[in-house]
Automatic annotation (TrEMBL):
This is ABC-2 type transport system ATP-binding protein. Keywords: ATP-binding, Nucleotide-binding. Residues 7-238 form the ABC transporter domain. InterPro entries: AAA+_ATPase, ABC_transporter-like_ATP-bd, P-loop_NTPase. It comes from the Bacteria. It holds the Pfam family ABC_tran. GO terms for molecular function: ATP binding; ATP hydrolysis activity.
Amino acid sequence: MTTALTVRTENLSVRFAGVPALDRLDLRLAPGKIHGLLGRNGSGKSTLAAVLAGFRRPDEGRVLIEGGDLGTPQEPYENAVVTSRVCLIRESGDRPEAVSVKQAIALAAALRPYWDADLAGDLLDRFEVPLNKKIQKLSRGKKSALGVVLGLASRAPLTIFDESYLGMDVPSRNLFYDALLADYTEVPRTVVLSTHLVSEVSAMLEEVVILDNGRLVTQSPVDALRGRGASIVGPAAAVDKFTAGFTVLAEERLGGTKSTTVLGDLDPALLAQATAAGLEIGPVGLQDLFVHLTGARS
């Protein structure tokens, strides 16, 4: 049984040709949770994943990983003890293309102290990844499936999936989500899902980190973040009066009825006020909040 790891970043900065990819990032990823790492393209998600896994040295600040059998907090860069307990699976692959799937599995088994061969075999069968085929001969979807197998079967105390399932079709992605939840339940560890498929993974996430232009927009438990938004439905005039002063995310109108999505905390007094005005209050999806908080437009 593995023990989940805690991750901290302190004033973490990474620059490419002088342009910040991460800008003074302070984070704490609690152990034993599934964290969503969300952001638009170019927000810094992949850079952060690479730094957490020790693939890149920060330009400023530091990453500290602790818990399990690591003892005192340690930085991952050029630290074999830490990196053997951190598994990063990227959409780009990071695997030698000329070897067979069987050889890639054998290499992972040799390098990963918590490797589960039975799980790997079961997942290869379920994703229908051929053992004797060279990786370079696999379709993009099968390459993504192989990455998912390597990540899950590693059972690393810190497992990071950086858009690693983008080549998979919807049924295969659903198979991945089901397999992740089942194995996470059996062997809890710290999981980071870096993705822009927010609507697909939102039900799995316990905490979210949202980045924009290399900076932290928010870090919050999912339920608390969802609580920051609400949809208000009712007579148009009553909706307009109630939502005055809120940040409006979206509006729709059908005849005399209006639906307005707002960002803001609705305390019990405001909820009672809305009910008295004949308004209906509903939740807002994580995808809608993400779009607003990052300034993106769908």
